[in-house]
Design goal:
About 50% of the residues lie in helices and about 10% in strands. The chain is elongated and about 95 Å long. The termini are far apart.
């Protein structure tokens, strides 16, 4: 078929995919439809739809920042599937802000403390690598986002203010000074109202961003008058980087100046979004469409703070799980508060694998509802998964085989799936490495095997006998059926199959939860699995080197 003959087919397919996108119910498509309605299906005067994410570089970048970028990218990709309107994504750093306090998790705190209240791009880098602390944190953010292959344009507040690109918008704020004050003052405490101004002059003497009353403002001259720190009455232009705005007026001004069409924000900023939207409207622009997501919590249920460094960093997550699992965590239930700590990683990895396996067999329209579609569209470097082995299976294989060598683990995998190699399935190879690291740091310290009671030992002995009757190449389903049948025959000891499986996990694996046993025995190997059960019946597992001796008895007696 010639290129000309293929063209109608491709065009028809594109129209069909667009129709599916317009009906898709996944939340990124729901958000994208708001933008399509906003534009009326036509490009704005600036020629594109502008997505924006904001970043405050006063502390080291944290995982919530990545979450905002990947979620926004998902909405952008959904919009591109349903429209031909060009799009851009600005990742905007508020690096003109004054540094209010020294972060807890940096070196050379004394050096940084000498420059408090200066713009972040004027504070020395405590790490000694970049021009300033703001440049350091901006570089960390860009480097991480670039490693994912995100399509975005980095924007610096300092650059926009100092280059004059915000000048027209800043003069508009000055012209509407009184109207903006009417918006802001009711939101402030009475004491703060007395000194508040939308403009924060930057002292020409100390270089600090000043929280001082504005004594005069002249829209015609484009200037403000204030008392500097030493009491000197000073007049400065609001343009050219001599002043910056308080952050809520700054937000509204930026939406107006850039023509932002879409920006997400955390649930804690709902009131701030309302104020910034009113200011944007006063300046003559329509506020962007938005989406309020819930905040992440640390292991104690407290809000994650970039200055405190609690919760997980992006680097920490990526020690134990692939980027796709992190993206899935961001995709799932964005309006629900979620604990963001190490124990969520295995579930996120396995959920991602489940979605990737499902998408290949789904109808094209259904794929747009699959989280894997949104993740793989947002992360262009996402690797396909080739072999049907879960992360939880790998974690248990690491522990049962007592192996921290990837080559040893690949020996088990190759026997289970002869076609799999590290080269043919690079994602699985990475998962093996993640499993070794996660098991070593989080599973092994909590391991506690216990001895089987007499009734449990009887059931395990019967399981061992049944497994000895199976052929060595028995598949996981056949093995699983044997495990089920043995558990059912001992219903006096195990009222439910859940009780049977839990006993197997505690006695054989040293934990209360575990993988599908048929799959695990098949991966570990029938000879090795039989030996494992034999060791448990002999009481040898409970006295493994490094493990505390667990007394004989029920699960309630299991040692911590």
């Amino acid at each position: 078929m010639s290129e000309d003959q293929q063209q109608p087919t491709r065009a028809g397919r594109d129209l069909e995919e667009r129709a599916w996108a317009l009906e898709a119910r996944a939340w990124p498509f729901e958000e994208a439809r708001k933008l399509l309605e906003r534009t009326g299906g036509k490009a704005p005067d600036k020629g594109y739809v502008l997505f924006e994410t904001g970043y405050g570089p006063s502390g080291l970048p944290h995982i919530g920042t990545f979450g905002e970028v990947v979620r926004t990218t998902m909405v952008r990709n959904a919009f591109q599937r349903m429209s031909d309107i060009p799009t851009r994504l600005f990742c905007f750093s508020d690096d003109m802000d004054g540094l209010r306090k020294v972060p807890d998790n940096i070196p050379n705190k004394a050096l940084v403390a000498e420059h408090l209240h200066k713009p972040l791009t004027k504070v020395p880098d405590p790490f000694g690598k970049y021009e300033s602390f703001g440049h350091h944190n901006n570089a960390m953010l860009r480097g991480f986002l670039d490693s994912f292959g995100f399509e975005y344009e980095f924007q610096s507040s300092s650059d926009w203010y100092r280059s004059g690109r915000f000048d027209a918008a800043l003069l508009a704020v000055l012209r509407h000074y009184d109207a903006i004050m009417e918006v802001m003052l009711p939101s402030l405490r009475e004491e703060r109202q007395q000194s508040y101004s939308p403009f924060l002059p930057i002292s020409p003497k100390s270089g600090r961003v000043l929280q001082v009353p504005i004594l005069e403002h002249d829209a015609g001259a484009g200037t403000v008058v204030f008392d500097d720190e030493d009491g000197t009455r000073t007049e400065l232009p609001v343009t050219g980087g001599h002043c910056k705005l308080q952050w809520k007026p700054d937000w509204g001004m930026r939406w107006h100046a850039l023509g932002v069409d879409y920006e997400m924000s955390g649930k804690d900023l709902i009131d701030s979004v309302k104020l910034a939207s009113r200011i944007c409207s006063i300046l003559g622009s329509r506020p962007p469409e938005g989406f309020n997501y819930e905040l992440f919590l640390d292991e104690e249920g407290k809000k994650i703070s970039k200055s405190k460094g609690n919760g997980l960093s992006v680097d920490e997550w990526l020690q134990y799980g692939p980027p796709e699992s992190l993206a899935l965590f961001m995709y799932q239930k964005p309006r629900a508060a979620k604990r963001l700590y190490f124990d969520v990683i295995p579930r996120a990895v396995d959920d991602y694998l489940k979605h990737t396996r499902a998408i290949a067999g789904e109808e094209p329209a259904r794929r747009l509802e699959n989280p894997a579609w949104h993740i793989q569209a947002a992360l262009p470097g996402a690797e396909p998964e080739q072999t049907d082995i879960s992360f939880s299976l790998l974690l248990n294989l690491v522990g049962t085989a007592n192996a921290e060598d990837k080559a040893v683990l690949w020996g088990f995998i190759s026997r289970y799936a002869p076609e799999a190699t590290p080269e043919s399935d690079p994602l699985l190879d990475k998962l093996v490495g993640y499993a070794i690291a996660y098991y070593r740091d989080f599973v092994l310290p909590t391991k506690a095997y216990r001895r089987a009671t007499e009734p449990e030992a009887a059931a395990l002995g019967e399981l061992l006998h049944e497994l000895e009757l199976l052929a060595l190449d028995a598949d996981s389903e056949s093995i699983q059926n044997v495990v089920y049948e043995v558990g059912k025959r001992h219903d006096a000891t195990f009222p439910t199959l859940r009780d049977w499986f839990r006993a197997c996990y505690e006695i054989l694996l040293g934990q209360e939860q575990g993988p599908r046993l048929g799959s695990f025995f098949a991966l570990y190997g029938l000879p090795e699995s039989r030996a494992l059960i034999g060791s448990a019946l002999a009481g040898d597992l409970a006295v493994r080197p490094g493990d505390a001796l667990a007394d004989s008895g029920p699960a309630s007696q299991m040692q911590a």
